[in-house]
Queue: 2 jobs
Job 1
Amino acid sequence: MRAYGSVEEALTDVLRLSRAMTYKAAGAGLPLGGGKAVILGDPAVVKSDALLEAYGRAVDSLGGTYVTAEDVGTTVEDMVVIARRTTHVSGLPVEIGGSGDPSPATAHGVLAAMRATAEHLWGSDVLSGRTVAIQGVGKVGSVLAGLLVEKGCDVVIADVDTAAVASLVSEFGVRSVPAAEILETPCDILAPCALGAVLNPGTIPRLSCGAVVGAANNQLLGPEDAGRLAAAGILYTPDFIANAGGIINIVEELGDRQYSWVRALRAVERIYDTTGEVLRRARREGTTTATAATAHAEDRLKAAGAAR
Ligand code: NAD
């Protein structure tokens, strides 16, 4: 849910997001297609129970071919309101049998992708002693920071929200730099966990990292930025492979079984293998990692189409 400038802008965004969702689900081997919905409007101004219930009715009219969940501008609590009008809603609170906020699962998935990336690049998946710079310590970045500290990493964080930075610095003793400096901070792994399009012709020459592994969606501004990263000697682990933990967690809620965090975490851990597979494919086929990830997802889509 966002204050889009126009209906066209919203339509462009929802098509781009649903395509990314398709690749994310296929890349993670999930039994899902891809779909996304957008609600036009500033959540702080126009969000109401009536609006969310109307959205719930719209989702319900699709008869279960689309299942909604929280994302930018919506919360776990909003899903409860939507659930008054449809059963095709996920990411419900844990107290009522849902899987709750997907962000911790996303953070665990990014960590698994980082370990696999380290293994590929440096021959060991042990992260202890590695410097990791996190751009954005919101719902995903803050959990990731804690997990990396536990692993013995030297963690550097930045966020435009200075209160969020201060709280993590005091909780975990991590270092911080101003938001404008995080991309050029020398580190082993850069983890974009704030915005899309952070990897672009303007930023790539300034990066001072060995690898990029983060949660943000659509990190490359354009497809040619994958080549720019490779030419700069930076290993890019494609975003939709690294950040699939949230959707993997939600799939655990959709089945008939009672949701279990332990089982979800086990499923999220498979991102380690998927990441390794994609990085090795790129090396083997002499392509960028972005091309290899797309090919990996398209293979699964083709196989699903053939099975049908
Ligand atoms: P969030 O809104 O909780 O956190 C984003 C943080 O980035 C905020 O603290 C914000 O202040 C900060 N930020 C914004 N601009 C910044 C800048 N220029 N420099 C530094 N910090 C900046 O969002 P989130 O749920 O943590 O998600 C982070 C990213 O990961 C988003 O791109 C999201 O689409 C993607 N993602 C999230 C999930 C999930 O489970 N939450 C799953 C997949 C992908």
Job 2
Amino acid sequence: MTATHPVFCRAIVRPPASNFAEGLTTQDLGLPSYETALQQHAAYCQALRRCGLEVIELPADPDYPDSTFVEDTAILTPRGAILARPGAPSRQGEVEAIRPVLVEYFKRLAEISDPGTVDGGDICEADGHFFIGLSARTNLEGGRQLAAILQQAGYSSEFVDVTNIPGILHLKSGMAYLGDDVLVLMDAMADIDIFRSYQIIRVDEREQYAANCIRVNDFVVIADGFAAFEESLCRAGFRPLRCPMSEFQKMDGGLSCLSLRF
Ligand code: CIR
């Protein structure tokens, strides 16, 4: 299908460290297995390669058990990168390892500063328009700083308050933009007014985790095990590519969290 979605060439990833299970989580799904997480991460990287991406792999960092969730450290746009400032104090140091990689690939690098906090998982781009989730991790000050940086770069944005939506950590835990004016939305977000001009693929409450998926070139990478959602995607003309995600789900992470794509 022809896509309005940007063509991605690369992804930055970071495998889970051996103490991955010591990261933050709100889930009650048991402790993740490190071995299985490593296998799932390798399968994820393979899926990104199948989508045509060069995968830039940073070394695992046991100083930061959540550092495999690289998405939260930055927001990447075709007009520049923005270093985030994660809302969880235990994660703020993760940004420094991402900085040199972004300096290498992006001419413009802005950053969110104290007292602002922004997690990349709260930012959803839809063809140059950015939905900025206000959450337990992204505060209003951080959202305002980001909106100003985006505006300077010629992008528009608007806030979506997700603090009262149950069961999600970040905005993108409940939504994804697939290009071509199509949004994937979890049931509890599907009737929010600001999304009404989009074509919506609604994710049933029982498959809520599946709402975090990523359009990567010709494919939509989705979590394995969500048959109804997969069928909706196929019906809408998309090509799903499944990845096993159980160990990352236990730590509140989804598909988008595991990479920074550009
Ligand atoms: C955290 O709580 O920060 C990590 N355990 C999970 C982060 C998931 N990231 C994302 O949704 N972008």
